[in-house]
UniProtKB/TrEMBL annotation:
Designated gene of the protein: leuA
Cellular component GO terms, alphabetical: cytoplasm
Superkingdom of the organism of origin: Bacteria
Pathway annotation from the record: Amino-acid biosynthesis; L-leucine biosynthesis; L-leucine from 3-methyl-2-oxobutanoate: step 1/4
Origin species: Aeoliella straminimaris
Protein name as it appears in the record: 2-isopropylmalate synthase
Pfam families tied to this protein: HCS_D2 (PF22617), HMGL-like (PF00682), LeuA_dimer (PF08502)
Cited SUPFAM superfamilies: 2-isopropylmalate synthase LeuA, allosteric (dimerisation) domain (SSF110921), Aldolase (SSF51569)
Keywords assigned by UniProt, alphabetized: Acyltransferase, Amino-acid biosynthesis, Branched-chain amino acid biosynthesis, Cytoplasm, Leucine biosynthesis, Manganese, Metal-binding, Transferase
PANTHER family to which the protein is assigned, alphabetical: 2-ISOPROPYLMALATE SYNTHASE 1, CHLOROPLASTIC-RELATED, HOMOCITRATE SYNTHASE-RELATED
InterPro entries with a match to the protein in the record: 2-IPM_HCS-like, 2-isopropylmalate_synth_dimer, AIPM/Hcit_synth_CS, Aldolase_TIM, LeuA/HCS_post-cat, LeuA_allosteric_dom_sf, LeuA_bact_synth, PYR_CT
UniProt record similarity statement: Belongs to the alpha-IPM synthase/homocitrate synthase family. LeuA type 1 subfamily.
GO molecular function, one term: manganese ion binding
Amino acid sequence: MSRNIVIFDTTLRDGEQSPGASMNLAEKLEVAQALVDLKVDVIEAGFPIASPGDFEAVQAIARSVKGAAVCGLARCNDKDIDRAAEAVKDADDPRIHVFLATSAIHREFKLKMDKDEIIRRAVAGVERAKGYTSNIEFSPEDAARTESDFLCKVVEAAITAGATTVNIPDTVGYATPTHMGGVIRDLVNRVPNIDKAVISVHCHNDLGLAVANSLAAVENGAGQIECTINGIGERAGNCSLEEITMALKTRSDYYGHTTRVDTTRLVPTSRLVSSVTGLEVQRNKAIVGRNAFAHESGIHQDGMLKNPTTYEIMRPEDVGFHKTDLVMGKHSGRAALADRARALGYHLEGEKLQEVFDAFKKLADKKKEVYDSDIAALIDKRVSSADDQWKLVRYELKLEGEGIPSATVTLSKGDEEQTDTFFGGDGPLDALFRVIEKITGSQVVVRDYRVHSVSQGKDAQGESTIELEYQNRIYRGRGVSTDTVEASTLAFLNAVNRISLTSGEPTEAVYRDTV
Ligand SMILES: CC(=O)SCCNC(=O)CCNC(=O)[C@H](O)C(C)(C)COP(=O)(O)OP(=O)(O)OC[C@H]1O[C@@H](n2cnc3c(N)ncnc32)[C@H](O)[C@@H]1OP(=O)(O)O
Ligand SMILES: CC(C)C(=O)C(=O)O
Ligand SMILES: [Mg+2]
């Protein structure tokens, strides 16, 4: 029977758990708005107890988002649930997502709780959340590795306690499609009150099977899929939203289900998330990769020219690829800029539109043609630096006798400016980075540094991305400018700003990184 599958996006929660993918408040609000435009049903905006910044972001999203439920994650304890409830309370449709691991491994080694205690805590958690909202999701974490009998008992108890969605996570990406389908089928057949809740699925991609496992779950009765843009998330990531929604759409002949997702927004949303997290999308990534609709070989090109359906199962425009890169110039106005920005995944209005418009006009004076990618870069620059404490005022680079670099940088913080100089270093960029370290007082190690062009032509804008290590954590930064040295300096400063943004917060998050 045809069903509408609920799309639960967790880019801002599980997606943000990707090492180095932290987003600032302005970036999270921009992504949340893009998710609304994409027409996802539920936005998991964060884990409010995790840090004051997470709480603030969930609250701001709950207050601003219209047209999707806003969800906050909580462990099964009173403090987490109360904090999540406080964060989502102003949403039109607030959801609290309570989780507790159920597998033998997690019970014994992590939680140190027996089966009875797990059921007691799960029920107490759902009941407490129920005191705040009627929209409650419960997840038995590591469900795919949980004994079937026990999983059925926990799910039944959570529904009796008031859970309206029961989410079945494959937390460690262990399942295969037949296995995951079987887990859902067992719940459908064996849990007496299962019809009182929506069954959800939350698959991780450790074996590259997250999308396949989610499809198998849907085939066996799941009515909600948890997923993220570009498949980002803990370790190898989560089920990719663009892949799962296009699989359901393209193969509606087989699955017969629908989603509310406006698939023409997939590419702009993917771009936005890639840009704010610094996690690049691989060229051959299904649906949104640059090569997803590119045809190189003669026989394929011949077929495409005769009829695109010979080699394309989806139309590029259905996922949001544009045939042409619209050229805007110095004679374009605000209306055209706002319209172009929307097509690229952003919302520009009021003061924000004016700021980007001013930057656009300056760029148009420098560059002959301003492409979509230039515009996206200008907006990204504004969004990613919105919460920055330190701003670059000016810099000067000189090569002294025997080519030794000397860098002088002026940064501002609030109304104050500070200038310093560094002489020496392993090259001009190193000298610039060292001055910034001196002024901001942060000692970092550069782990990765890249520069590439974001638009066409000799006068293209350069984008620099950088990964800094500070106290065993990775911080990413981006900078864009027509001058690549300036782009690199901005990227370094952007990453340093992220350090000062998070290190002042009393978070005790355990972090395992891959460096
Ligand atoms: C599968 C998932 O994706 S779950 C979500 C994972 N995301 C995150 O962890 C990111 C945010 N996390 C954080 O900021 C921190 O871990 C916090 C603030 C939540 C907790 O920090 P701390 O209080 O220092 O605890 P810490 O992280 O060291 O350990 C987690 C504790 O929660 C307990 N716990 C884990 N899951 C649950 C749960 N669902 N319900 C109740 N307790 C739980 C653990 O057993 C451990 O308790 P213990 O300290 O008594 O052994
Ligand atoms: C919190 C839960 C749903 C989770 O992210 C997982 O189990 O992977
Ligand atoms: Mg997860």
